[in-house]
Design a protein that fits this description.
- The protein is α/β, with parallel strands linked by helices.
- The protein has nine helices and seven strands; from the N terminus they run H-H-E-H-E-H-E-H-E-H-H-E-H-H-E-E.
- It has a seven-stranded mixed sheet, sandwiched between helices.
- Helix 5 runs parallel beside helix 7.
- It is globular and about 45 Å long.
Length: about 220
């Protein structure tokens, strides 16, 4: 498991959950990409990927490296991010300035299981799975994705940053392995999702999940 071993992150930058992705430090984005590369190394090749939050296109770059011929259709509400994403000129990737769920509803899947989904949430924790009111839109998006039966789903979770303060609310121990196990169990119970792999650093955890139990 990849874990941050560098300096105290609080000294590196001051950033809130509401900080626009385009304003995030370059060092943090690089760490995210390292985790994404490690996670997508275990992802089954698919011809199409739905990307819920395109951001600056950094995740799309990683997915394109892993799957050179994949077609990526992304959404992002931040128009500046959309412009930056599309200026990258990735051969088969495009980002639209719109809501992710609205975009997903326009897509037609001829056959289930021949696509992947990247849900790189800025702020998502097990409390959303438990029913936190402010997280309802995230649950709606996950459920819409699961309903369409992708080969795999990548989900980003942000609990690790403040785990030491919130672990009791999460019903887990004060360590990331316990939290991830609790989160995956909740996702399995609710949606039938199983973990393929995950990576984390000080700010977030990146999970690769599938609708098929591969534990045996």
């Amino acid at each position: 498991m990849a874990v941050w071993r560098g300096k105290n992150p609080a000294r590196l930058f001051a950033m809130k959950d509401s900080t626009p992705y385009r304003e995030r430090p370059v060092t943090e984005i690089a760490r995210e990409q390292e985790c994404m590369r490690a996670v997508f190394a275990y992802a089954t090749p698919v011809p199409f990927i739905f990307e819920a939050f395109g951001g600056l296109g950094k995740t799309a770059q990683v997915m394109t490296e892993r799957f050179p011929e994949v077609v990526i259709t992304a959404a992002d509400l931040d128009e500046e991010c959309v412009k930056t994403y599309n200026k990258l000129g990735l051969a088969h990737a495009i980002c639209y300035p719109m809501d992710a769920l609205d975009l997903l509803k326009t897509l037609k899947f001829k056959e289930p299981g021949l696509w992947g989904a990247s849900l790189d949430f800025n702020r998502f924790t097990i409390l959303d799975v438990y029913g936190r009111r402010e997280g309802r839109w995230k649950i709606d998006l996950i459920e819409a994705v699961v309903e369409r039966k992708p080969t795999w789903i990548q989900i980003t979770d942000s609990a690790v940053r403040y785990l030491h303060l919130n672990y009791q609310k999460y019903y887990c121990q004060n360590n990331i392995d316990s939290y991830i196990q609790t989160l995956v169990e909740a996702m399995t119970e609710r949606w039938g999702l199983y973990r393929v792999t995950h990576r984390n650093y000080y700010a977030a955890s990146y999970l690769l999940l599938t609708l098929n139990d591969i534990s045996d």
